[in-house]
Write the structure tokens for this entry.
Amino acid sequence: MIAIWLTLAILWHNKPETLEKISGPLKGALTLYITMTFIFFAVFLAPLYQPTGFAAFSNLVLHYITPIAFIVDWILTETKLRYKWSYLPYWIIYPLCYLVFVFIHGTFTGNYLYFFLDINALGIVGYALFVSILITVGIVFGGLYIAINRKRTKS
């Protein structure tokens, strides 16, 4: 999603009225999603994944540099539109849909993509704990981004 957003931003850099269509709440949502990716990779997956060579480089770019750069860009540039608190429930829809997808995919294939979403290995309590953590992280950081935006765009 970030790659698509960045591609559109490059293509539309001389068209401010078109660029505005991918700013605001959409950019806020993408910033939340890349933040969640960054946090969950760094905390849960990085200790288990030790790539070398090009895989190490691409891992660094995809899981650390891109999220940090996108978050910094959001902080520096997302000041024109004042976010509404009502954006937060909409922003949480994608992570919830992703959880449903992983659950259905895992049910049919046995591959839950990530150990912390494998209901068979964790049991219902462990699974519920990780899902609760994921949703809580989304709500906390989504709320934080909305609060930062509202503070910076006070009229």
User: Anything to note?
Assistant: Residues 2-152 form one domain. The longest helix spans residues 119-152. The chain is about 75% helix and 0% strand. The radius of gyration is 17 Å.
